[in-house]
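The records we work with from here on pair a chain with its fold. A complete example follows; check for yourself that the lines match position by position.
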Amino acid sequence: MTSPDEPHDVSSGVSSGAPATGAHGLGPHVVGTRVVVRRLVPGETGPTGGPAFTDVLGVAETWWPDLVVRREDGTAVTVPHALIVSGKPVPPRASRLQHVPGGEVQRRVRGLWPGETAALGDWLLQVSPPHEGRVRRRASSVLAYGSPDRPLGEALAAIQDWYAARDRRPELCVAVGSAEETALRAEGWTEPADFAGHAVAVQVGSVARLRRALGASPHTAATGTVATEHGPVAGAAPDVERVRVSVTASGDRIATGLADLRGDWACVHDVRTDAAYRRTGLARRIVAGLLDEVAERGVTTVVLHVLTTNDPALALYAGLGFEEHHTATYLGPPR
């Protein structure tokens, strides 16, 4: 059965019982977003003889019991609520990756998966074998960015024939708000029943910038030992490599994550933490380890997919410095 991508099992530092304080309007809702905060500096006097203030700019990682802001250089600043003078969310800093077309970002990821592909103009048809017992939408759907090489009705008929010959139901991946989405919905294509209410945030990051923000990653975690494995991906192109970083405790794997890489791009996926060990920083440690491994292999850009309904994962990746490139959804034929 096909299932939504990506149900990362992570959690953030949000505490729903922690209200915003003062008139600044900051609160749990800013976790995972970029903020600027003006704070009092206790015991110091400002240039005019009054209280001293300082500004902190970075991504809010937790709100309760204190606001923690991680600067771009990787340092974390703890700001007690009582010292906050003012603050507000600010737009993320633009990066070169935002100028890369969505179709190119998605094709970089598609090139990592094993299976069969076929081109239909700009569109890419793909089927991949099940991964851990489930068919992944992002590896077994049509990447519909750009234009097919024929009228839309003919293209959709060819797609349905191609997937029927492989005993699969066709689904098309489109950018939300795109001309392709509008045209397909006009033809009656809608989200499959098991994807209704979902969308996928396609997130990107510069490996160098992410690693600077994360700082050095030790070979041990507070609750276990970190190990890495790497090797080829069965059925994929010969130059595709897979890296796994895992944390074990008492002989059991309690957290894990994968990164598939080719050339200077990689895709992070399947970051998971055992339920008993969530909220202990293991997901952050796994991603840091994956970034270290892919950097050693020459990767400069990393991509990941997260369901827009997965608030803990979105907060984690925003706190690490990932940027949302665009949002995608999947559409299936009229029922």
Remarks:
- Residues 96-198 form one domain.
- Residues 6-19 have pLDDT under 50 and may be disordered.
- Residues 282-296 form the longest helix (15 residues).
